């Protein structure tokens, strides 16, 4: 989607959360696709179309369902640093970045995980959305807080999963 196009509504925000789990464990849990349905509320499908899950350049088909609303798009991993997530040097931030394209929407998410303490991780997520089409632009205009709130909900769900083993699917059923 072209950047700077006046026909597109844009939204940027940052959300963050502290997780009472060591950074290495948080990274391990976030990187494992088997755990995604446990904390990513509404996830129906996340399947790689090309590449290896979580690696730079990999594209995946993603489907979310929220009530009667269904969103399908393509996710592309644009950064994973370090590439090898085992034995990450102390003090080094871990970066996961991706772009998602869906009908009427483009988004970029830049996640940074740092050690906030010996057994605590700070997760900072920078989010950028661009909306096109009348409906998506209207939704973005009328409910700008809803998208930010959903991002924070995903982070809170992950925190509950990482710290207490809570599975969002059990709460929904």
UniProtKB/TrEMBL annotation:
CDD domains in the record: SRPBCC (cd07812)
Pfam families, per the entry: Polyketide_cyc2
Protein name: SRPBCC family protein
